[in-house]
């Protein structure tokens, strides 16, 4: 077993890379590289690539996970009887390719060369009773435009057998449970899993496995944006562009993040989020209900199309 640090990227197939690039730039990603048959997009953070599209029939192609170091990657490869290969993408590095029990391609990378972060817009303070009123003699103005995506935060995969998939991912990558979802008492159907970083805080969930009625498949991928203003500006940009809004804006119960879900031109669900929970390895797992999973602290209820 190794302990992965985070998700790294998500990979799709689409028949028109130019159309995908236009959507992703409206969504807040930035072109890293385009070559024959492949589109690589990055965010404002130091990861060299967050979203990859290969030319082909529309579909989900792979989830990328990031190992802490090359020696971890080599240990994983040895345990699985798989080769360590060069990772042919911006940032380089090495990759080991696995297939999970549901047929999902999992690409574990290490040794990527980080890129310089991109500048973020200056933000003035929020005035309020709780936050204080430190912004004085200055008007607050936020420039219109797409969200600024910082990083790829989590992925949700639908699975055929939750317990079997949970065991597979935990045994290889060291995930720990934040919240296990029960359809009814004693009947688990999924779990929010986070990276085990010891005393270093980790997102409430890096991977969510859900035993869905639709069967195995891609559910959605989520990208962290700069702040609430940034999320709302991105919402307006995508709305003005006539894109398919799916769910939001609201605040989840589990994970607590403010969310906004959109569909790309081929129906893949991508999420903007900000202000999520962080936990360490010392924080115990919880059990939650389907109502907790689908509920919101504020915002609209989930649409029937989600998942």
Automatic annotation (TrEMBL):
<dbReference type="Pfam" id="PF00903">
    <property type="entry name" value="Glyoxalase"/>
</dbReference>
<dbReference type="InterPro" id="IPR004360">
    <property type="entry name" value="Glyas_Fos-R_dOase_dom"/>
</dbReference>
<dbReference type="InterPro" id="IPR037523">
    <property type="entry name" value="VOC_core"/>
</dbReference>
<feature type="domain" description="VOC">
    <location>
        <begin position="151"/>
        <end position="275"/>
    </location>
</feature>
<protein>
    <submittedName>
        <fullName>VOC family protein</fullName>
    </submittedName>
</protein>
<dbReference type="InterPro" id="IPR051785">
    <property type="entry name" value="MMCE/EMCE_epimerase"/>
</dbReference>
<keyword id="KW-0479">Metal-binding</keyword>
<feature type="domain" description="VOC">
    <location>
        <begin position="6"/>
        <end position="111"/>
    </location>
</feature>
<dbReference type="InterPro" id="IPR029068">
    <property type="entry name" value="Glyas_Bleomycin-R_OHBP_Dase"/>
</dbReference>
């Amino acid at each position: 077993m190794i302990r992965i640090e985070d998700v790294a990227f998500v990979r799709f197939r689409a028949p028109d890379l130019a159309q995908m690039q236009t959507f992703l730039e409206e969504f807040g990603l930035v072109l890293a590289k385009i070559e024959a048959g492949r589109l690589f997009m990055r965010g404002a953070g130091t990861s060299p690539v967050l979203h990859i599209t290969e030319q082909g029939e529309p579909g989900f192609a792979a989830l990328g996970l990031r190992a802490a170091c090359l020696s971890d990657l080599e240990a994983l490869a040895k345990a699985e009887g798989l080769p360590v290969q060069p990772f042919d993408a911006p940032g380089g590095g090495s990759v080991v390719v696995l297939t999970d029990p549901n047929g999902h391609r999992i690409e574990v990378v290490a040794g990527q060369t980080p890129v310089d972060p991109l500048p973020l817009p200056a933000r003035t303070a929020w005035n309020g009773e709780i936050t204080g009123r430190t912004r004085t003699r200055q008007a607050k103005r936020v420039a219109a435009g797409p969200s600024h995506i910082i990083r790829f935060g989590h992925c949700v995969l639908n699975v055929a057998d939750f317990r079997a998939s949970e065991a597979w991912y935990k045994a290889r990558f060291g995930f720990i449970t934040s919240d296990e979802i029960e359809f009814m008492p004693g009947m688990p159907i999924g779990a929010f899993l986070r990276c085990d970083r010891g005393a270093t805080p980790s997102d409430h969930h890096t991977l969510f496995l859900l035993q869905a009625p639709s069967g195995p498949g891609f559910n959605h991928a989520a990208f962290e944006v700069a702040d609430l203003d940034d999320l709302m500006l991105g919402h307006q940009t995508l709305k003005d562009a006539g894109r398919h809004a799916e769910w939001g804006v609201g605040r989840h119960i589990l994970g607590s993040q403010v969310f906004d879900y959109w569909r790309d031109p081929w129906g893949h669900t991508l999420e903007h989020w900000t202000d999520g929970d962080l936990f360490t390895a010392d924080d115990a797992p919880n059990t939650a209900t389907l109502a907790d999973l689908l509920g919101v602290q504020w915002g609209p209820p989930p649409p029937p199309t989600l998942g």
